[in-house]
Amino acid sequence: MLSYTEENYLKALLQLTLEEGREEAGTNELAAYLGVKPATATAMLKKLREKELIEYERYGKITLRPAGRKSALEVLRKHRLWETFLYEKMEFTWDEVHEVAEQLEHIQSSKLVNKLDKFLGYPKFDPHGDPIPTAEGELKAIPRKTLSQIEVGESCVMVAVRDNSAPFLQYVVQLGLGINNKIKVLARQPYDAQLEIEVNGQKSTVSQKFAENIFVV
């Protein structure tokens, strides 16, 4: 059985590669994603390599092996199902569910998770717009862009967020944004790439960093 920390590392590796549409991740990149020091990440990566869950060479790229990917998908599935349960059935707000799901995702009972999936009606997406892996380990790839990639004058629809932190999600709500909202890009500042956007008739200015954390189609 894997430790909670090992599961967290595998899940983070999977999410990093999924978000960027690639197979590999770097040590420093993973450490920053998890909020740990590179030396701490290196020590854990060595353990995961010993368990044959990842391919890893010091200062090189990290790749999930089949067993590691399977474990990562299982944890990710539990996390997103629990987020959906908390949001839809327990009336948590979308900025509250991530932290609680971080605790619940380590429950080992596959029977409970499968019953939870059935109870929720086999949802395809979590409250943040991310696809939920199936019991068979299938994860639907969703072609999408970030808001920062949308040209001035174009419209798009918000489908997910990259940043699940409470402060970011609360800011999204303050701007009147949510999943399936239509966004029109009105202007882009040449100096710092700030965007002027319009949502439901309301105009706002957002930073490039914010725009990079909003997924759209």
TrEMBL record:
Gene3D superfamilies: 2.30.30.90, Iron dependent repressor, metal binding and dimerisation domain, Winged helix-like DNA-binding domain superfamily/Winged helix DNA-binding domain
Keywords recorded for this protein, A-Z: Activator, Cytoplasm, DNA-binding, Iron, Manganese, Repressor, Transcription, Transcription regulation
UniProt-recorded Gene Ontology molecular function terms: DNA binding; DNA-binding transcription factor activity; protein dimerization activity; transition metal ion binding
One protein family per Pfam: Fe_dep_repress
Superkingdom as given in the UniProt entry: Bacteria
Domain (HTH dtxR-type) ranges: 1-65
Predominant location category: cytoplasm
The protein's name: Transcriptional regulator MntR
Function: In the presence of manganese, represses expression of mntH and mntS. Up-regulates expression of mntP.
Family, as annotated: Belongs to the DtxR/MntR family.
SUPFAM superfamilies in the record: C-terminal domain of transcriptional repressors, Iron-dependent repressor protein, dimerization domain, Winged helix' DNA-binding domain
Cellular component annotations (GO), alphabetically ordered: cytoplasm
Subunit-level organization: Homodimer.
Record gene name: ideR
Subcellular compartments: Cytoplasm
